[in-house]
Each structure stands twice: as structure tokens, then as C-alpha cells.
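Name: Dihydrolipoyl dehydrogenase
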Amino acid sequence: MLRLTQRRLFSSARILAESKKHDVVVIGGGPGGYVAAIKFAQLGYDTACIEKRGKLGGTCLNVGCIPSKALLNNSHLFHQIEHESQKRGIDIAGDVKINLGNFMKAKDTAVNQLTGGIEMLFKKNGVKYYKGAASFIDEKNLKFTPLEGVEESVDSVTADHIIIATGSEPTPFPGITIDEERIVSSTGAIALKEVPKKMVVIGGGIIGLEMGSVWSRLGTEVTVLEFQNSIGAGMDAEVSKATQKFLTKQGLKFQLGAKVTKGVREGDIVKIEYEDTKKGTTESLEADVLLVAVGRRPYLEGLNAEVIGLDVDKRGRVVIDSEFKTNHPHIRCIGDVTFGAMLAHKAEEEGIAVAEYIKKGHGHVNYANIPAVMYSHPEVAWVGQTEEQLKEAGIKYKVGKFPFIANSRAKTNMDTEGFVKFLADAETQRVLGCHIIGPNAGEMIAEAGLALEYGASTEDIARTCHAHPTLAEAFKEAALSTFDKPINF
Ligand code: NAI
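Structure predicted for Dihydrolipoyl dehydrogenase:
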């Protein structure tokens, strides 16, 4: 009886599709969108989030940061077992092998647990989750198209505030067709069915180097073709050089000043051509897999943003003011689809700030203090300004450096590559930038972020007691080195 009633309700709902009004609707359930939705709900708004992927968490959780970190972590473990067991006094009986199926399963488990976790958080905070696609009917109304198999009576949604958080997608390479099999974007690179013998990566940015690291550790011969004369897209030049050195030692090959002109699949082989801009020659390479990692671009597909005349700039980024308002003040925009670094944690900050702007009239994102981390081994992390930026701005600075080879914990861990580098104001010692290449750099950089946020000096850091033996002591000694002699080096 109950079932019958439910069925009737469902079928009548399908016929009498309805429009639903909320205080806030967030389009996109990635790190920017889902955090914003939860924050709005916590601030007392009737909030909905529309997401078309079928899973929350966006690119980051589903095909970006999270799966790539699972692969990075486990491939590093494999590499360590294979190459370092003996020196650590661990004898391995038999061969150490990669089971690619289970290796990928471990990644998928992490992804599924985390995406499911956000759905629970939505329930806990009372966020209505619409599983399907949103597109503008007009400035106030969104058409809602449920995903196949999703029972949803609502076919349009309206709200006082609309937040666009639709993210980004890989920038296509003119003339190269991604098939996610042999010619892959980051999405295909985290789901290869076998370990390729040879991989060519176009782009020595974060994605290219992280994914290049993973496959190189599993036995692939990886060549990175980078157009610029340095890798790491935006790293401090000294750190970039050190990174290239460490990755080269691990087996990655680099061709800098390489302008790729062609990448064509022929059966199971990809043929690549590039211009060596230093020599002025045309070179060719063959690979089993070509990874295209030349950046990402804002994603607005299917949103029908044209119908409302949404203002976007030449690079496709939604134009916003300092309170995230688009040219329609009740529509705001955050994350990769607008200005700034395309980083999950930057989007998360904006998700909180946009809710606070609407509720309280003020919000806060310090764009000068957004850390960047590359999860290679050693990790590379930085925050604040690089030496090159300080020189260009004519700011006088001091450098303090401390190598992990002189750090007791790094020594005991047999993990001593890299250094911590502080850039401090020449007169006041105020922290201007911190650049770390070394074990756990991605965790350690948080302390530098806090220092920057509070306007701390390197002396503040050097006079703060750091536990012994920790890697963080290298951080403290690098700070000390900007104005005094280090103790342990
Ligand atoms: P990217 O912008 O970091 O690097 C792209 C690289 O490709 C640049 O070095 C560029 O010079 C090079 N390039 C462009 N055209 C080329 C050509 N024709 N031939 C050779 N090289 C060429 O972009 P990437 O690595 O694709 O990452 C996209 C975004 O995702 C970035 O904003 C990145 O920060 C973010 N991301 C962050 C991660 C993290 O925080 N760990 C992980 C993955 C991505």
C-alpha cells in the first residue's frame, strides 16, 4: 500500500514538475562549491547545490588532487621498497611487483570514501543536493536536468543568491586529440590500464611532474617537454633547478625550450614532434602514452551563461568584483572559473568568504598567502614571493637557507634531499616568502603561511621552540639563517 502511494507520488511528480525556491543555490559541488554550500547552510540559509558529475568533490576529489595523491603516495612506497629496503635493513623475500588493478583500486577507495563523506556533510548541514545539471533560463531561474535514473520532482530552481562554482577543465592542445587512452589528460593519466614503457609529457607544470613521477616510479621512461627554460610553472628559480635535479636523478628526462607542434596516435604508438627552440631544430619522439598537461581553463559548458550575458574575459574567466559579484550582483562566482590560482584550497577560501560577504557584508581571502604544493618526492612547497618577484619589485631582502642533510630527523629517516629557504625583509626580517623542497614540505609550509598571515618576522620563528627531532627544525634554522648563524650547519 505504502509502495503504491509512493509510486503514485513519483509519477505525478514527474508530470507536475515543479519549481523550487531556495535562499542560495550553488552550481558545482567541487571544493569551492561544496564548502560554500555548507557554510551558507551553517549561516542559516536554505541552501541547495546542483552538481552534474554524479559525485561531489569536483575535479579535485574525483580526478585530480585526491586520486593523484593516492597514486603518488603508493608509487613512492613501491619505489622505496624496491630501491631502499636493503639500506634500511629490510630484506624482501621474492620479487616486489606492482599489481596495477589493486593499485588503482586503492585510489578509487580513497576517492569514494571522500566523495561519499561530502554527501553526508550535506545531509548533516541540511544542504539540498540536486544530482543533475543546471543551466540559466534567465537571471533568476535555473533549469534543472536530473541525471539519468535520479528521481527528482523539481525541474527548475530559483534563489535569491546564485553562486557559480563550475571549476575548470584541461586546456586542449591545438591539433592534438585526447582519447584518454594513448593521448591523455590528467584524467586518463590516473587511470592507465597498464604501465607504459615510454611516456611523453607536454608541460613541466605541477600536473606533468606529479604524474610523470608516478609512472616513472612504476618503471616508465618519462620525457617531459617544457616550452619554458625551467620547470615547475612559477616556482622560485633556485627551487625549480633543484627540483629538476632530483627528478632527473629519479630517472625523468627533461627537454626544456621545447615547443611541441604535433602529437598523433598511430595504432598503439603516439608520434610527437617538437621544435628545440635553442637549437632551432625539429625533433621527434615516440611514446606509448602522451600526457597533455599544459594548464587548465575555466569551465562554463552547458550553463547557458550567454542567455544572461554573463561577463567573461578573453581567457574565459568570469569577471567578478572584490566581493565575487558578477555583472549580475545576485550572481557571484568563485574558484577556478574566475581569477586567481587554480587550486582547491584557494576555491575553498573563496567558498567561505562568499557566504560571509552575503551574511555579514565582509569576507576574507589573502591572495598573497595561498600556498602551492607539488607532491613529488621530495615535495616542493612555497608561499609568498619568490626571489625573482622580489627583485622585480625592487624589494630588499635577505635569504636564509638550511639543508635537510643537516637535520637530524631527515638523517634518521634517510630522506635528506632538499632545503628550506626563507626570504625576509632586509630591514625588519618580516617573512616575505618561504620555499621548501624536501620531505613533508607540503605539511611544513603551513607554518610559513601562518607567519605570513600574522606578519611574523623570521626572528619570531627562530625564537619559537620547535620539537626535536623534527623536520620542522630545518624550518626554524632556515629562519634563523636570515639574520644569524645556524647552529647545526
Ligand atoms: P601549469 O600551468 O602548472 O603548467 C603547464 C606547463 O605547460 C607550463 O610550464 C607551460 O610552460 C607548459 N606548456 C604550455 N604550452 C606548452 C607547449 N606547447 N609545449 C611545451 N610546454 C608547454 O598547468 P598544469 O600542470 O596542467 O596544472 C593545471 C592547474 O592545476 C595549475 O593551476 C596547477 O597549479 C593546478 N594543479 C595543482 C596541483 C597541486 O596543487 N598539487 C596538482 C595538479 C594541478
